[in-house]
């Protein structure tokens, strides 16, 4: 086979793979994956012995598609400001690898497909929650980023909704346990994001995003919000131990309290030092906290 034949036969498939990987990058796959992990855990906890696997798979597909659509729409909206931040300048839209029309079409198709799955294969409540989360994230949170540091609280509500979707997908009525799961996910986002907001504070300022670390460059308010979120998270995360449906409460209480205390300790360290190392530690710990906490909740419940 001649060199030219190899090039012409390989190039289209390489181009296709590159295009698909750009499309995947638009969906913020790691955030979607963690959202799906927490939604699956919530479904297992809502219906420990009666979980319908088919409904769970449809719920995950629908939630994943709607969340992916929201991230694509968010990146389309922020295509100009993303070009001003080193962290985001190489994203497919600012780098010009994907056009605006492609992104809009992809966001629309994933939104419609996800909503159709949730409406017809899961239930209406879960579908409405998905739509509410999409609207909050895209229509309220995204434009609010350049206007008010309150944006993080709105983003945290959008980010906490998928865990409730996992619960409602099973048809189980929302009770104290469900609200405690949603509360943990909501509160968790403050240490998670305040660490990020500190690490990338110069990026955010350059892009015109009014994050707390831009409004207050001393980092005192970001530190305080991280500490407050982590502190309130501890009692909220203990609620499943006192609700009768859970299994061995002592093991869960000990584990959950320990994890929460570590997150609080790292938040306090971040609030005191407000440096890159303590922020990166806190960010990493936040990403370990969620799966570690949910794993134990599942172990003692199932
Ligand atoms: C106010 C809400 C949130 C904001 C503003 C936020 C923002 C961010 C940002 C900017 C990063 C990138 C950090 C970097 O590049 O170093 C990140 C990372 C991450 N976030 Fe969040 N996040 C929020 C909520 C959530 C939620 C609800 C989840 C899932 C349950 C989540 C999961 C992740 C994961 C898995 C990563 C690491 C992987 C990656 O960098 O893509 N985040 N977050
Ligand atoms: C079902 C459904 C619609 C779920 C939505 C879940 C979801 C996408 C949550 C995202 C939470 C969030 C505020 C992320 C940061 O976005 P950012 O714009 O601050 O991040 P960036 O600066 O990296 O773009």
From TrEMBL:
<dbReference type="Pfam" id="PF01040">
    <property type="entry name" value="UbiA"/>
</dbReference>
<dbReference type="InterPro" id="IPR000537">
    <property type="entry name" value="UbiA_prenyltransferase"/>
</dbReference>
<keyword id="KW-0472">Membrane</keyword>
<dbReference type="GO" id="GO:0008495">
    <property type="term" value="F:protoheme IX farnesyltransferase activity"/>
</dbReference>
<feature type="transmembrane region" description="Helical">
    <location>
        <begin position="179"/>
        <end position="201"/>
    </location>
</feature>
<feature type="transmembrane region" description="Helical">
    <location>
        <begin position="249"/>
        <end position="272"/>
    </location>
</feature>
<dbReference type="GO" id="GO:0048034">
    <property type="term" value="P:heme O biosynthetic process"/>
</dbReference>
<comment type="similarity">
    <text>Belongs to the UbiA prenyltransferase family. Protoheme IX farnesyltransferase subfamily.</text>
</comment>
<feature type="transmembrane region" description="Helical">
    <location>
        <begin position="149"/>
        <end position="167"/>
    </location>
</feature>
<feature type="transmembrane region" description="Helical">
    <location>
        <begin position="281"/>
        <end position="300"/>
    </location>
</feature>
<feature type="transmembrane region" description="Helical">
    <location>
        <begin position="31"/>
        <end position="49"/>
    </location>
</feature>
<feature type="transmembrane region" description="Helical">
    <location>
        <begin position="124"/>
        <end position="142"/>
    </location>
</feature>
<dbReference type="InterPro" id="IPR044878">
    <property type="entry name" value="UbiA_sf"/>
</dbReference>
<keyword id="KW-1133">Transmembrane helix</keyword>
<keyword id="KW-0808">Transferase</keyword>
<comment type="pathway">
    <text>Porphyrin-containing compound metabolism; heme O biosynthesis; heme O from protoheme: step 1/1.</text>
</comment>
<dbReference type="GO" id="GO:0005886">
    <property type="term" value="C:plasma membrane"/>
</dbReference>
<feature type="transmembrane region" description="Helical">
    <location>
        <begin position="222"/>
        <end position="243"/>
    </location>
</feature>
<keyword id="KW-0350">Heme biosynthesis</keyword>
<dbReference type="InterPro" id="IPR006369">
    <property type="entry name" value="Protohaem_IX_farnesylTrfase"/>
</dbReference>
<feature type="transmembrane region" description="Helical">
    <location>
        <begin position="55"/>
        <end position="77"/>
    </location>
</feature>
<protein>
    <recommendedName>
        <fullName>Protoheme IX farnesyltransferase</fullName>
        <ecNumber>2.5.1.141</ecNumber>
    </recommendedName>
</protein>
<keyword id="KW-1003">Cell membrane</keyword>
<feature type="transmembrane region" description="Helical">
    <location>
        <begin position="98"/>
        <end position="118"/>
    </location>
</feature>
<keyword id="KW-0812">Transmembrane</keyword>
<comment type="function">
    <text>Converts heme B (protoheme IX) to heme O by substitution of the vinyl group on carbon 2 of heme B porphyrin ring with a hydroxyethyl farnesyl side group.</text>
</comment>
